[in-house]
Amino acid sequence: MKRFETDLPGPCEWLAREEKGCMFNNFGAMAILQIVANLVFIGLAWWALQALNYEKFLRKNRTIQARLLFIFLAIIIGSLTAQFFLDYLSWSQQIPYIYE
Questions:
Q1: What is the pLDDT of residue 25?
Q2: Number of C-beta neighbours around residue 34 at 10 A
Q3: This model's pTM is above 0.85
């Protein structure tokens, strides 16, 4: 049976539309949260690495390589820390589904 254009969609169609809209909104919000968390934790890792006295461990006249090493260390430590907190956030949001 052909439906008229003025007919309202059925409940399943409304639900599908709402879920699709919510899914994309959650993806966008999670993407922004992941970007911000990674940048914040990389910055914190860089700040924390500044407290190390690294001259004893590095060769002389290798300052560019030392800075690059510290950048990589900050990215690695910050990304791992951000991933931990994002996983923790995700797990804590899934706890209510235990009782369903």
A1: 58
A2: 13
A3: no
